[in-house]
Design brief:
Low-confidence stretches: none
Order of helices and strands: EEEEEEEEEEEEEEEEEEE
Helix content: under 10%
Shape: globular
Radius of gyration: 16 Å
Structural class: mainly beta
Strand content: over 45%
Largest sheet: 6 strands, antiparallel
Length: 185
């Protein structure tokens, strides 16, 4: 049987950013905190400013709460809200960020480049994570249920559920208000 792990946003330590533009709550730094290959966090953006650069890292970003942000990437400007699809970009891009109307809460997935392909999507659009993966997870913004074969996991709001096994059993997000699926192949 696969081993499932959980991290609760309410138990994650809030860390202020050096530039005073917001804060981060790290849910996962895998496999180790100092030399992570995969990182999942929830950030609060309080003011306009650039993202920190993460050289050699691929990033995914999704707005969870708030009116949204405008990201200025090298090739395009994007308007992101809690209803838009998450966006992936190179960590070196360090896009400029402008708040639309006040602070936002955002989900971040970062992976060291060359270790596979990461992806993030909203469960309402695609509720299943199918096939063998190196790592997979579901972030429950609202309470939801995740079915994994015959196993059922009930998640409270603010929970990251993940497995770092290479199992092929499909995960299905059920009764999802707002949830995001994360996967590394």
């Amino acid at each position: 049987m696969m081993k499932l792990h959980r991290a609760l946003l309410s138990q994650a330590t809030e860390q202020a950013w050096r530039n005073a533009g917001g804060s981060t709550r790290e849910l996962l730094a895998w496999p180790q905190v100092q030399a992570w290959q995969l990182r999942v966090s929830v950030a609060r953006i309080d003011r306009d400013g650039p993202f920190s650069a993460y050289s050699g890292t691929d990033r995914w970003f999704a707005v969870l709460e708030g009116a949204g942000v405008r990201l200025r990437l090298p090739a395009e400007d994007l308007l992101l809200t809690a209803a838009t699809v998450p966006v992936g970009f190179a960590g070196e891009a360090a896009p400029g960020c402008t708040l639309i109307d006040g602070p936002t809460s955002d989900l971040n997935l970062m992976m060291r480049r060359g270790l596979g392909e990461a992806r993030m999507w909203r469960a309402q659009a695609e509720p299943t994570i199918a096939g063998a993966t190196r790592w997979r997870g579901v972030y429950a913004q609202d309470a939801c249920t995740v079915r994994i074969g015959k196993q059922v996991a009930t998640l409270v709001a603010g929970t990251l559920l993940w497995s770092d096994g290479a199992e092929a059993t499909a995960w299905s997000v059920e009764s999802a208000g707002r949830a995001l699926c994360l996967v590394v192949r």
